[in-house]
Amino acid sequence: xRGYGGRLLVTVSVGWATVQCGRLVxxxxxxxxxxxxxxxxxxxxxxxxxxxxxxxxxxxxxxxxSDRLSRKTLLVAGGVIGAAGFxxxxxxxTYLAFLGGAAVVGxxxxxxPTAARxxxxxxxxERRGQAFGFxxxxxxxxxxxxxGLATLVVAVATWRTAYLPVVALLALVVVAIHVQSRERYxxxxxxxxxxxxxxxxxxxxxxxxxxxxxxxxxxxxxATTAFLPTFLRASKGLPPAVANAGFAALFxxxxxxxxxxxxxxxxxxxxxxAPAALLLAAAALGAVxxxxxTPTIVVGVVLFAxxxxxxxxxxxxxxxxxxxxxxxxGDLGAMRSVYISIGATGPTVVGAIADASSFGVxxxxxxxGLLASAALVRSSTRRVDxx
Length: 387
Prior knowledge:
By secondary structure, the protein is mainly α. It has one domain (3-384): MFS general substrate transporter like domains (Growth Hormone, Chain: A, Up-down Bundle). 83% of the residues lie in helices and 0% in strands. The longest helix is centred in the middle third of the chain and has 29 residues, at 128-156.
């Protein structure tokens, strides 16, 4: 945490926590928002999918532009646009306006995370796994904050109030990055080089299947963050406060699990840690689906979170270790664009399954996806490493 690199690690991580809080606060607020705007589960899923989809599509341009321009340029631009989008969501009078605000948020926050991870890769080499663990764990702190913020505003105000502190804090982060970063702002035309990037990534053995594995993870993750509180209320019969606490536990556990997994991945083979994390998540979700007592459900959610949220820092550090230094931002961004954009269909699919059948059936599909992802990660990393 010391020195120039440490200060930027903290600042961009606070920014990521704020972005995540703003995106995730909609999940525990969803029953209230749904009643206020008179929308169905499927329409709510479309909001999440639009936000995640645009966020995903910006990952590659963000990484590529941060390689060619500067990390600072992309981080500040993303923060400003994201703050404007959150403000629009909080003041939207209709479903279409709310959808438009979500689209602006998707664009803004899509510019932020790949540039942030590329910046941390510039600053940290020997302890890259731990840096990624700390940074990604900050997003889970944002998830815990989202659950607490939602519970508070529902008790004392309206759901729209939740977006005001998000806008204010994100503005402060933008100012801090502007002051702390030694990089200069660069704005100029640059080639996205989509063809070269695609050939470089897809031409390597195992990477295509590794992207598919990440698609399945992203599908499950995005659907979980959209509907976990609603699932716990509708399918497991938990009261709203307990369901929101379960949602908070998802991220509270992740805040510990991610840096721990990053540390473990630096000392043990990352290709072994990543699939083990997915197997734990699938088994725990299966247990939640089968059991009925509240304490057992809570334990299952904790174990589910430990497995699910241990995966990203280990897998992303594994990928960064194998990408060329001169194009790592763009290459990681391209992979993120693919797996997050396809995974963005998760909330819509789960919402539609829930409307047609039940949330129990929908989350059973997610558990199966995690099992398939674990198998693909294990086989793909062995091919990439040639073992």
